[in-house]
Amino acid sequence: MLRITLFKISLLAISFITFLQIPGNLFGQTVPDQQNDFITLEEAIRVGLERNFSIIIAKNSAEIASLNRNPGAAGFFPELDLTAGLSGGQEDLVLTENGIESPSERTTNSVANLDAALNWTVFDGFKMFSTYNKLKEFENLGFINARIQIENTVGDIISSYFNIIRIQKRMAVLENTVEISQERHRIADTKLQIGSGSEYEFLLAQTDLNSDRAAVIRESVLLNDAKVRLMTLLNLDPLTDFEVSTEIELGNPIEFSDVMNAMSSENKVLNAAQIQTRIASLERQEVLRGRMPTIDLNAGYQINHRETENSIRRLQEIDGIRYGVTVRVPIFEGFNLNRKLQAARIYEKNAELSLNEITSQLNSLAVAEFQNYVSSRNVVELERENLELANQTIEIALERFYQGTISSLELRESQRTLIDTETRLITAQYEAKLSETELFKLMGKLSVD
Fold first, then answer.
1. Which CATH superfamily, name and number, covers 36-69+125-292+333-442?
2. What is the pTM for the complete model shown?
3. pLDDT tens across 120-148, in order?
């Protein structure tokens, strides 16, 4: 059997044994003698949802919006204030008459009061209803914005995860190339030693071998950077080493009609823009209803205790209730109401324009992304066929090189063909996965509750 075939079998065996020796979980379980942890995509997404800073902040913002959605914040409830006070003082009174000063007289006084005041706006032109509906829309917007952040982060995690797989597969290609170059270098060295080869062939083989080894080193740097990127998204120690899956698997083919139908109702960015238009409309209603009269009910209870003591002790106590109705009718506010209403109408118009713009952009993005998705899947199938041909070519080239019927340059050209073919396949798989992820995001199916 050809040496390259034996090498691949050995590599698969080693990989399988290594896989059996990597149990465990990246997040908290301790496994004796464990070198690297294995993390699945599902685990990465789960941890990201729990620990990613941007997601936590977005969820907290949504919670604040939910707390603000309260009838009291809209003005439905009355306001009750309680005021209490205590004060006192002393005064010395000295009278002088015809130059004769009378003895001083000290006056001591103290005052204690308690006042409870209730005010309730029972009618404000239905403005409070518009305000409450607006607060509910802000709550919905908070949840939608949190989902948008979740989708973006999940998309980043998926992209980072499969980028690691892409680089690892690329490294495997380069390591396989190094193995072939080592064999070519060994043969060139043997021929040089027995006098049937040239020093030029040996030096050329050495140069190509060093170049292939350098390519592996450069790829390992990219792999380390990709792993750090994923750990940062998961808010874990960037020095953590781990293993991921080895294949970029695509889901079932997506239909364009499914994308457009789901996007029109489930896309979170579009949902947020729709909520913004409703908020703008409610804000215009708030301003418009500011022209209506306002009716307030008010009531109160007061206790006042006043004590004065000099030569005579005096005590005064007052307590009682008060109540009333206040009607306010806006007549003229310096044209501020008209100004606010004009601004609110412009804001509402801008919200509608923004919704139309976002709808148009999403439609264009869906078309472009679906075309990329279809093209990438087609390229994957073509490159798989090319890879089979390239593998056959390199095996034939190696056999002929052993027999001395082709030169090292021709073998090197077969190597480059194999590298290019495998690289194109890996790139096409990765791009197809990214397009698939983006389509799921457009369809509103990327969030994980």
1. Outer membrane efflux proteins (OEP) (1.20.1600.10)
2. 0.80
3. 999 999 999 999 999 999 999 999 999 99
